[in-house]
Amino acid sequence: MQLQGKKIVLGVTGSIAAYKAALLVRLLVKEGAEVQVVMTPSAKEFITPLTLATLSGRGVVSEFFHSADGTWNSHVELGLWADAMIVAPATAATIGKMAGGIADNMLVTTYLSMKAPVFIAPAMDLDMFAHPSTQRNLDILHSYGNHIIEPAAGELASHLCGKGRMEEPHIIVEKLKDFFLADSPLKGKRLLITAGPTYEKIDPVRFIGNYSSGKMGFAIARECALQGADVTLVAGPVALKTPHSSIRRIDVESAQEMCDVATEEFARCDAAVLSAAVADYRPSEQAVQKIKRTADNMRIELSPNPDIAATLGKSKRPSQLLVGFALETDNAEANARLKLQKKNLDFIVLNSLQDEGAGFAVDTNKVTIIDNDSRVEYPLKNKAAVARDIVAHLKKLLLVCLMMFLPSFVDAQELNATVTLNTSKIQGTNTEVFTVLKDGVTEFINNRKWTQYEFEEHERISCNFTFVVDSYSDDGSFVCTLMVQATRPVFGTTYSSVLFKYEDKGIRFKYQPYDRLEFNEDNLDNNLTALIAFYAYMIIGMDFDSMGELAGSEYLNKAQSIAGNAQNLGDSGWRAGSNENNRYTVIDDYMNGAMEPLRRLMYRYHRLGLDTMFKNADGGRKIITSCMDMLKEAYDNRPLAYVTKLFTEYKQDEIVNIYSNKGGAEEKKAVVRILSEINPSQMDAWDSIEKSAL
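Above: the chain's sequence. Below: its structure in token form.
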């Protein structure tokens, strides 16, 4: 139940699609959410409040006051109570009222008071949906930070066919789950889980095995998948169904097979949980035919199987976590701690056959989780609850592990920015204002605390802010072009890779020498500081993304929030729906779910590719080649997105250098084909890659 404990306000409006609200409520409740339905008066003509109240278990809110006793339904309290609001179906009339702030019913007043994210699922006839006024209102709502769930195409109530059908309830629920999973430490993490027994053949019909059912490992795999992880489940011979549709399952039989698969998969994973009960020994020889019974004693010579935990422990990178299990019958904790150290585990899950209800072939377990710093003993629970305890400990250590690769606690700020003011276009005016502005911006960028982390001096992110002043008036009005560039050092080298680069034209702001540069995220009133804050968060977020998969979400969301809230600052670069690519487009593209392959690429390209190239040139380059496939995936998902082309522009020289006289002809040809499709304007550069193979 991925929405367990989430409080959802469901707004239902007067549309024929209101009947879908019943299923939507049911699905939300099934996922563990608390649902409060708010209806417009006209919605009651399509579905009764009694139906929705019965399904939600809460009385439906529709009117401002209860006519019987005059008590007031507080839209303010609902706005504070909710974790999210969904308006489904959303009619053209309600969308217009929400965009215009026309608070003439309980639903719109609740929306205007809502502190939580709002999801809007339009439902109307195709011509109404396509009408410019509807599209403008949706653009306005999107610019305010609301999430628009695009309607589907199909047969409508008018019997016409086209776009306007409210999206199906199960898809709306999935989008809501994806939203809440975005902040999960497991979201996008690649996890390897081993589960079940192994069977070691004696002959074609007999084997050495154990009593493991695989239930514990399958429960862990399910819990990880529910929390957004990409799970690979390596299962021994068990009679269990794959516990979640997103889990990739690989079935094996023997310990050697499990070891081979686990070793290959672990290289690509962030963590592994080894819950399988692996046979320690196998018959030295396996009979080809069934061994016949004789009167004599039979002896089977056994050879040791590979130790999977020890094998993975030796290859484990500092950024990976490894979790083991210990099922003991005596000296349980001492044996578990010895295994923790010898096999280079990050923590171990101990359970004992001495505890009733724990161990093999039961639905419960009683475990103690031990790591180098702590020991937590849990009571007997069902295995699903035990899995939640184990995954909770894993998440805690993953966050600690991530912090080791992100800036840590030392006295320095995050950004090391060089600020330049180019005033060559300006003649015969007071130059003091330019000097003061440059110094003020430099101090504002470098001395402000942008994150909750502390950075070592050498960990500060290098960046350049170059303002080219196009015009200046004595009243302090500036028109500038800003060129922003951030770089990231490649570990173990003196080389720095361009992390982000963008030229932002036509920026307008006012600045006098006595002005203080102040920034308030909740009250954007200064175009200059909003602009700098936007790029600061963008740069920090992309740097974090390059250190860990999707690790920069918190700060990239801040950048996106600034772009959405800065509509009233008079700068076209903040506006959505512009015909030209602008800073709003850049962050909106980068944070779009369809562009997630590009965000994942940032980590793989920089951390796994560039950072390892100086140790292993071929290995690092091949990882970067796989990144080109991820870039193509993002491009295919959104061919018109500007940010994929932007990436190829500022990475052009680096990519050409990576493949110059390196790699095979087929590899280069594949890379060139992708880059040429995404950015054909740079064909000369891409051609030079392929020519270097000749």
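The longest helix spans residues 383-404.
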